[in-house]
Specification:
Elements: H1 2-24, E1 26-35, E2 40-49, E3 53-61, E4 69-71, E5 74-75, E6 80-88, E7 100-109, E8 114-116, E9 120-123, E10 132-136, E11 139-143, H2 148-169, E12 177-182, H3 185-188, E13 206-208, E14 213-217, H4 222-238, H5 248-258, H6 266-275, H7 294-315, H8 317-328, H9 333-341, H10 345-355, E15 375-376, E16 385-386, E17 420-422, E18 425-428, E19 431-434
Parallel strand pairs: 11-12, 12-14
Antiparallel strand pairs: 1-2, 2-6, 3-4, 3-7, 5-6, 7-8, 7-9, 10-11, 13-14, 15-16, 17-18, 18-19
Length: about 425
């Protein structure tokens, strides 16, 4: 009897453990993330269950504006599996240094058990350098070789630039801005989108890809490149929401306006075009893809700057902020201009032309909604460019967009060919395209 009692007690003690095991079903035995800059991140996971594991999904998002996206990892089969998901940084899916990847695994077995791991955050890093950071207000500059004086100057320049653009655009940042400062454009190539496009001879001087992060090279005009790229970040904040977008002339013109002055040679190109009545129509400048050669790109940036300067200096900063507010509410550029200034793009084009001594241009009868600067969709099928009003569709690498129906609305500021010839190179929109001679 004593032996039977002891057996029953042992059995009773074992039953809860068996029930817990049956309820849990699936156990993750290991999970790791391995940085592989500049190629991306490899996530590995091993799990086991009493039943055969039938489904493993890797889910991730990249804030601040990232949608929830899933990927199909490569896995072994059976009740014990090992899985790997390679989140590649390519022209289709570009990862910038400092990107926070929030991820988790979802696992199912054929007994109906499901397991969702706790979310973790992995910070993608350019691990070629030993990074340090300096912070002032809401600006963080990461660096590896800048001296104290240079950092202090750049921090002051950046904070002043952010405050100036917030005031001009009628918005305020609600997140810290990260800037990765590279000692040279050559050092920065592996971290830049231009390095993923396969374009021979392309050297990037500055980029904004995610809306909270800029990369800047310190060897050519770093203060104005910083001002330019930070202006793009503030512009995105000013237009935050599902509807707002800016045509290329407004986006890039504002970024050039944020500089201390246009880049060397741009004003000369503009004056030459004005003398010959060869300036672009404003409707041609709704997209940043019109440029065909160096002069076109130089003119694009100079003319965009001149038009934005005209709006601000003739009609005031308050109306300029109101224009951004109208765009954020979902108005097309023509509707927004009409509501704030009383003229559409054709009217603005002619008012600007008159201000520089040119005769009026006949109306081109635009459709009313600007195309906007081309957005490079990391999850777009085949990595193609799509208009800002379209919803990005996921590619094979990342799987479909989650139930919220949104995609990553990331845009790459400044990659629209080239601009001003400087010592054999070309600078545009924060991007230096160096021609190999």
């Amino acid at each position: 009897m004593r032996a039977l009692t002891a057996f029953l007690l042992l059995l009773a003690a074992a039953l809860p453990l068996t029930a817990v095991r049956a309820q849990e079903g699936i156990t993750v035995t290991s999970a790791t993330a391995r940085n592989q800059f500049p190629d991306g991140v490899v996530f590995n996971m091993a799990a086991e269950s009493d039943a055969e594991i039938t489904s493993v999904v890797f889910r991730y998002t990249i804030p601040p504006e990232g949608a929830r996206v899933y990927g199909d990892p490569e896995c072994t089969e059976g009740a014990r599996v090992e899985c790997s998901f390679n989140l590649k940084s390519t022209a289709k899916l570009f990862l910038v240094p400092g990107a926070n990847i929030i991820y988790h695994w979802e696992i199912k077995d054929d007994a109906g058990n499901e397991l969702k791991t706790e979310p973790k955050t992995f910070v993608y890093e350019d691990d070629r350098f030993q990074w340090k950071s300096r912070t002032q207000d809401d600006l963080v500059i990461w660096y590896y070789s800048a001296d104290e004086s240079q950092l202090r100057d750049l921090l002051n320049t950046g904070v002043d630039g952010l405050r100036r653009m917030e005031s001009l655009l009628g918005t305020s940042l609600d997140f810290p801005v990260k800037v990765f400062l590279y000692d040279s454009a050559a050092d920065m190539q592996a971290a830049a989108y231009g390095g993923k496009t396969g374009q021979s001879g392309v050297i990037t001087l500055g980029e904004v890809f995610f809306s909270d992060t800029a990369i800047v090279a310190a060897d050519v005009f770093p203060h104005d490149v910083l001002r330019h790229e930070l202006a793009h970040i503030v512009m995105r904040q000013a237009l935050e929401g599902p509807f707002g977008n800016a045509p290329a002339w407004l986006d890039e013109g504002t970024a050039v306006y944020a500089q201390s002055q246009p880049l060397s040679g741009e004003e000369g190109v503009l004056q030459s075009a004005i003398r010959g009545n060869r300036v672009f129509s404003l409707r041609m400048m709704t997209s940043g893809s019109l440029a065909r050669n160096e002069s076109d790109v130089s003119l694009f940036y100079a003319q965009a700057w001149s038009v934005v300067s005209y709006l601000i200096e003739t009609h005031g900063e308050e109306k300029f902020a109101a224009l951004l507010a109208a765009l954020r509410e979902g108005n097309g550029i023509d509707e927004a201009l009409e509501s704030v200034y009383g003229f559409d793009q054709d009217g603005l084009d002619n008012a600007w032309r008159e201000s520089v001594g040119l005769p009026p241009r006949a109306s081109e009868g635009g459709a009313g909604r600007a195309t906007g600067i081309p957005q490079l969709t990391p999850y777009g099928a085949g990595g193609q460019q799509t208009a800002p009003t379209s919803t990005p569709t996921p590619g094979a690498e990342s799987g479909p967009v989650d139930d919220d129906g949104s995609g990553f609305p990331f845009a790459l500021a400044g990659i629209v060919a080239a601009a001003v010839a400087i010592g054999g190179g070309l600078i545009a929109g924060g991007v230096l395209f160096a021609r190999r001679r």
